[in-house]
Amino acid sequence: MQESSLQSVGSVQVFSGHVTEDIIYQEFVKMGMQDFVANDLSKRYYRNELTYKDIEYLENNFNFRFEKLEEKIDGVEKRLEDRINSVESNLNLKIEMTERSLKSEITSVRIELDNKIDNVENNLNAKIDNVRSELKSDIKDLDNKIDTKFNELDNKIDTKFNSLDNKIDLNKMELDNKIDKTASELKSTLKVHNWMLGTIITICVGILLTLIFK
């Protein structure tokens, strides 16, 4: 019945029940002892026949195992640190690559947007130039049409004035002819009247002289 002794020497496992010789043997084997040593020590440990050298051997063996365990723990800790560092490095690398990729994509998108803006601006400028050219052409056509209409109107006015002048000249000529004809007729009438008046006066004078000299 070495329950408390097993806990103090081995510090490996705590049992709530009966500790057998086989359990002690298994624990010694787990500590790295050879089978015959573990078998011998487990028997003497179970019978409480351990000597000072046996206890010293067990202590040294335990310390050795503990050092090995510490080395393993240190190794595991080192490997964990290496893995953590590796993961951290990989993560940092991935973050840097992602950041570079994002910057590259942002730059690419910015360049693409700038190109699109330039294309839109160029297209808009081209359309404005086309509209301006079309407006200039339309204005020129309108000016030509206005000039044509003004020329046609001037021609019509000139034609009307010429026609009116011709009519005025014709009416003036007709009026002059009528006046000349009327004047000629009046002159002829006056000549006849003068002749008739002279004849009447002559007759009257003759009659008067005849009456005087009777």
From TrEMBL:
Query: What keywords is this UniProt entry annotated with?
Result: Coiled coil, Membrane, Plasmid, Transmembrane, Transmembrane helix
Lineage: superkingdom: Bacteria
Q: Which residues cross the membrane?
A: 195-213
Residues folding into a coiled coil are 110-152
Which Gene3D superfamilies does this entry report, sorted A to Z?
Answer: Apolipoprotein (1.20.120.20)
Instruction: Provide the protein name.
Output: BDR-repeat family protein
